[in-house]
Amino acid sequence: MANDVYVPDANVFFEYIYSRSLQKNARQLVEDAILDKIQLIVPSLLLDKITEVLCGNLDNLEEVQIHIQYLETLAAEKVLHIVVPDTAVRMQAIAIARTGHAKSGYPELSDSLYHALAIMHDAVFVTNDRRHIAKAEIFGHIMPLAQYGWSKI
Amino acid sequence: MERILDVTSARRQFGTLLDEVFHKGDTVIIARKGKALARLVPIENQEPQSTELTPRQRELLNKLHSLPALAMEKDPVEVLRNLRKQKRIQAGRKYGK
Fold first, then answer.
1. For residue A113, which of A126, A94, A132 has the smallest C-alpha distance?
2. Is B70 at the interface with chain A, CB within 8 A?
3. A4-34 residue pLDDT tens
4. How confident is residue B23, by pLDDT bands cut at 50, 70 and 90?
5. What are the start-end ranges of the H helices in chain A?
6. pTM given for the model
């Protein structure tokens, strides 16, 4: 069993779904999990978040379905461990979401749930959301997706 | 060639062992109190080989690399942020804030 545990943000999956600039890093993360080099844990809201954004692609519903089915397969094959956040994770998320300033803004609660899950599992939250990183990096257990891959060399 | 060495001997001749492993392609198993704990192998042997993949892993990797790419001009991070913002505005209106 792999020791390195990561909590990928929904935007990690969007990188390869939408062929964006960090798709290679995102695919690498999923590949490493398939090869049992790392473990992936995600909160149960991940699939809803992804479906919400995919909902915008009304012209390609078949392709949207393929992506959702693939994520379900990853979960069924235990590549993606879906966790319902417990009270400890939710309270940690609230603590993260309450940091910040009225002017510069506060971390989003849903992003904080991913981050809290990483903290409580001694894992690393991988995200492409620079704003969340800037606001919540004091809590540690966080890494930009752009660093995934070369950080392990 | 593969041989077993106890941890004390391995520590004493670690540099020599590295040369043997790298240049000759030998493998050294390091043991403590008779129990094998680690294997020193040439670095190229560490690369994952396709033959080592299980059928399940191969299938998942093939699927990953054949997934269709969807089109979206906007940054998905921004799209998610806007969706949340809209919900907050709607909730604010609903509860009169």
1. A94
2. yes
3. 999 999 999 999 998 888 999 999 999 999 9
4. confident
5. 10-17, 23-34, 46-54, 61-76, 87-97, 109-120, 130-136
6. 0.72
Percent of chain A with pLDDT over 70: 93
Residues of B in contact with A31 (CB under 8 A): 61, 64
Mean per-residue pLDDT for B46-65? 81
Q: Please, which residues have CB within 8 angstroms of residue A61's CB and are 6 or more apart in sequence? A: none
Question: How many whole angstroms separate alpha carbon A19 and alpha carbon B69?
Answer: 6
Tell me the per-residue pLDDT of A42-67, one tens digit each, with 9 for 90 and over.
Answer: 999 999 888 888 887 767 888 888 99
Q: What angle do CA A23, A12, A52 make, to 5 degrees?
A: 115
Q: In this structure, what token pair is assigned to residue A19?
A: 């062929």
HSE-up of residue A3 (Cα within 13 Å, Cβ side) = 0
Set of chain B residues whose Cβ sits within 8 Å of the Cβ of A27: 64-65
Q: Identify the pLDDT of residue A1.
A: 45
Closest by alpha carbon to A65, among A57, A9, A26? A57
Which residue stretches of B20-94 are H helix? 55-65, 76-94
Whether the CB of A49 is below 8 Å from some CB of chain B: the reply is yes
Chain-centroid distance, C-alpha B84: 33
B65 to chain A, any CB pair closer than 8 A? The answer is yes
Q: Find residues 2-61 of chain B whose CB sits inside 8 Å of chain A.
A: 48, 53, 56-57, 60-61
Using CA atoms, how far apart are residues A73 and A75, in angstroms rounded to an integer? 5
Average pLDDT over residues A83-101: 90
